[in-house]
């Protein structure tokens, strides 16, 4: 390690109140903090915005309907044409909605932790949501793959990939999410009893996400499948 | 001869053995002495030659690659990663290159080639030469150095095998995609890569990708680390370099909740990656993973060892943040730390982490390569599990 790096830490250059202990303030720390909210937030929400006219019904069934409608509304309001720019706008609208969710969730976590600034609670909420961001991306990828293979697969296999497989992802990433809350809480000095409450908030968020329409349910699929088959026949499988 | 035998009377055992074997003395005069630096150079240049023929095979109209090239990578990387073990065991080291030559011969009639080209023999001959030259020099060469008896950590040995094998796999799928114009294997490789490095490993063991899986990490650890040419960017500005102090987080005690988790430049590097993947939908293009991987190689050649990974890698930014919540990390037990004047783990850390500033475990920037565990002279400082005293301290402070 170079000498300059060693001599730099600790380098408190802000927040005099926190100089009683080591303050790990590094160059461009503010930008780093902002990006630590931006990147997970973007990845968390972008999947909600990428539905197109063929897939929107499927996305409404897979994700909470109001989130997809919100994204579609913003997209219609912005009204951008063009494939590449359209994709950017689509993911960005999803991300905007994702940020809203994160800021609300962070407010609850902020009250529970009660030991840091709100913006640091947002950072905490954003970073811990990464497993669910990966889950959202995986679910939307599974949906698109299902549609791509629609004409070449049997109804049973499509039903399995649309109804059953996503639950495995949900269980795995939910476990990672709750584990992440616990571990990051521990690493950022959240007291043990507050960490239990934080995990409770995480469980509550997952329950709310499920209750508001995450995952395709069998009764939804019964309505959706004939519609999809009809659409596929009309579009020739594209 | 009689004179030589008379000198045996001196007490030095080494001289006695030399005098008893005049044939080996004669051989030593003919064969080259392999010093430590020569050993490194020999493997290094053979590996570079292997990389050159690989690049020529996939990027020029030659459009042919012998499978043996992949085993040149194996021989070169393994010899360089374990240079302290193999230097002193030259004949054993030469077997690495013999293996590469054997594979080259065995797979002579099954090269990766496009239908239009017929460069099989030429490429085979060059590949064979690249294997045989280091083999011959190491097999006939001699050294005064006794074989090192220091054992490496098992996990480090395992990591090196994983790293090198995955590099070979990456080289294979890339060659297949570029030469045969068929990206089926490459898509499978990258799908598995993304699933492992984004969806599973970061949440369990942190930034494992940067220490175990990334081909560019292998390229830097196995080759660039041993090259002392003048880099185009020899040092980074202080405002970039000192970001490696981010994520110096405490597990317990007084925690700076404002501490950034990752260097800002590393996070910024995510943006071009994201733009390419999402906006231009390039994930199914064969050239896209080739371009971003070779972009990383080119940049890492221009910078000091691992500075690219620490500050600018577009592959590891998102995966880096994801690893903040990891279940396990290498433990640091500060009560056992001797505060040495020079800290070997810090000197050898690929991510320039100020280890002695950590509280109880390595930060999220750690790539879990276990170099620190191996290089620390004291056994209880860096460990897989928490020290009992540290556990008690943590429990006390968590209340």
Number of helices of chain B: 21
From the alpha carbons, calculate the radius of gyration of chain B and give it in angstroms. 24 Å
- Topology of chain A as a string of helices (H) and strands (E): HHHHHHHHHH
Compute the separation of the termini of chain A in Å. Answer: 56 Å
C-alpha termini separation of chain B: 81 Å
Shape of chain B: globular
Pair with the most extensive interface?
A: A-B, 60 and 58 residues
Q: From N to C, what is the helix and strand string of chain B?
A: HHHHEHHHEHHHHHHHHHHHEHHEH
Largest sheet of chain A: none
Mean pLDDT level of chain B: 87
- The strand count of chain B comes to 4
Q: What's the number of domains of chain A? A: 1
Describe the fold and architecture.
The complex is a heterodimer of chains A (238) and B (399). Chain A is mainly alpha-helical and 238 residues long. Chain A has helices at residues 3-8, 29-49, 56-62, 65-78, 83-113, 118-128, 130-148, 155-187, 192-211, 218-235. The relative contact order of chain A is 0.11. The model of chain A is unreliable at 1-20 (pLDDT under 50). In chain B, α9 (154-180) packs across α12 (215-222). Chain B has helices at 2-6, 13-20, 22-30, 36-59, 68-81, 83-86, 90-106, 120-140, 154-180, 184-205, 208-213, 215-222, 238-241, 264-268, 270-279, 287-302, 307-311, 316-322, 344-348, 371-375, 388-398; strands at 64-65, 112-113, 331-332, 382-383. In chain B, the strands form 2 sheets. Chain B has a two-stranded antiparallel sheet. Chain B has 4 domains: 1-25, no CATH class; 36-154, no CATH class; 187-236 and 248-324, no CATH class; 328-398, no CATH class. Chains A and B meet through α1, α2, α5, α6 and α7 of A and α10, α13, α14, α15 and α18 of B.
Task: Furnish the topology, listing elements before pairings.
The complex is a heterodimer of chains A (238) and B (399).
Chain A: H1 3-8, H2 29-49, H3 56-62, H4 65-78, H5 83-113, H6 118-128, H7 130-148, H8 155-187, H9 192-211, H10 218-235
Helix pairs in contact in A: 2-5, 2-6, 2-7, 3-4, 4-5, 5-6, 5-9, 7-8, 8-9
Chain B: H1 2-6, H2 13-20, H3 22-30, H4 36-59, E1 64-65, H5 68-81, H6 83-86, H7 90-106, E2 112-113, H8 120-140, H9 154-180, H10 184-205, H11 208-213, H12 215-222, H13 238-241, H14 264-268, H15 270-279, H16 287-302, H17 307-311, H18 316-322, E3 331-332, H19 344-348, H20 371-375, E4 382-383, H21 388-398
Antiparallel strand pairs in B: 1-2, 3-4
């Amino acid at each position: 390690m170079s000498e300059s790096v060693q001599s730099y830490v600790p380098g408190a250059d802000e927040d005099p109140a926190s100089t009683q202990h080591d303050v790990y303030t590094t160059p461009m720390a503010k930008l780093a903090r902002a990006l630590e909210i931006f990147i997970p937030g973007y990845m968390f929400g972008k999947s909600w915005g990428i539905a197109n006219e063929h897939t929107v019904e499927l996305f409404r069934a897979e994700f909470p309907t109001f989130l997809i409608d919100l994204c579609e509304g913003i997209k219609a309001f912005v009204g951008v044409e063009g494939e590449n720019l359209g994709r950017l706008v689509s993911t960005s609208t999803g991300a905007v909605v994702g940020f809203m969710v994160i800021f609300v969730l962070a407010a609850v976590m902020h009250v529970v932790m009660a030991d840091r600034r709100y913006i640091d609670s947002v950072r905490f909420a954003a970073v811990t949501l990464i497993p669910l961001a990966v889950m959202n991306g995986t679910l939307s990828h599974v949906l698109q793959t299902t549609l791509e293979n629609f004409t070449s697969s049997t109804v049973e296999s499509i039903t399995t990939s649309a109804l059953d497989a996503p639950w495995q992802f949900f269980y795995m990433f939910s476990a990672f999410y709750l584990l992440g809350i616990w571990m990051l809480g521990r690493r950022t000095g959240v007291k043990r009893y507050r960490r239990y409450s934080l995990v409770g908030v995480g469980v509550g968020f997952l329950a709310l996400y499920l209750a508001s329409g995450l995952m395709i349910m069998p009764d939804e699929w019964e309505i959706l499948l004939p519609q999809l088959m009809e659409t596929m026949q009309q579009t020739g499988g594209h | 001869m009689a004179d030589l035998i008379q000198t045996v009377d001196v007490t030095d055992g080494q001289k006695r053995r030399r005098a008893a074997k005049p044939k080996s003395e004669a051989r030593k005069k003919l064969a080259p002495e392999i010093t430590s630096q020569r050993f490194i150079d020999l493997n290094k240049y053979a590996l570079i030659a292997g990389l050159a023929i690989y690049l020529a095979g996939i990027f020029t109209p030659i459009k042919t690659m012998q499978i043996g090239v992949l085993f040149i990578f194996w021989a070169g990387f393994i010899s360089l990663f374990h240079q302290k073990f193999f230097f002193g065991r030259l004949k054993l080291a030469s077997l690495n290159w013999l293996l590469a030559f054997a594979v080259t011969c065995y797979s002579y009639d099954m090269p990766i080639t496009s239908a239009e080209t017929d460069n099989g023999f030429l490429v085979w001959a060059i590949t064979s030469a690249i294997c045989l030259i280091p083999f011959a020099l190491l097999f006939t060469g001699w050294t005064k150095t006794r074989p090192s008896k220091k054992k490496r950590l098992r996990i480090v040995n395992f990591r090196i095998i994983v790293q090198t094998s995955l590099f070979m796999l990456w080289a294979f799928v890339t060659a297949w995609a570029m030469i045969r114009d068929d990206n089926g294997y490459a898509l499978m490789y990258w799908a598995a890569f993304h699933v492992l490095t984004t969806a599973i490993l970061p949440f369990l063991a942190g930034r494992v990708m940067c220490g175990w899986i990334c081909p560019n990490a292998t390229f830097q650890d196995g080759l660039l680390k041993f090259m002392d040419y003048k880099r185009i960017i020899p040092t980074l500005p202080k405002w970039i370099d000192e970001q490696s102090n981010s994520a110096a987080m405490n597990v317990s005690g007084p925690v700076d909740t404002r501490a950034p988790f990752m260097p800002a430049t590393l996070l910024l590097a995510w943006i071009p990656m994201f733009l390419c993947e999402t906006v231009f939908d390039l994930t199914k293009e064969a050239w896209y993973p080739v371009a971003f991987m070779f972009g990383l190689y080119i940049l890492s050649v221009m910078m000091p060892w691992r500075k690219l990974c620490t500050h600018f890698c577009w592959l590891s930014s998102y995966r880096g943040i994801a690893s903040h919540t990891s279940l396990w990390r290498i433990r640091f037990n500060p009560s056992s730390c001797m505060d040495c004047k020079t800290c070997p783990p810090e000197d050898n850390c690929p991510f320039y982490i100020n280890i002695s500033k950590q509280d109880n475990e390595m930060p999220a920037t750690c790539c879990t390569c276990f170099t620190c565990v191996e290089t620390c002279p004291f056994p209880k400082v860096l460990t897989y599990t928490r020290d009992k005293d540290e556990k008690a301290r943590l429990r006390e402070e968590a209340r």
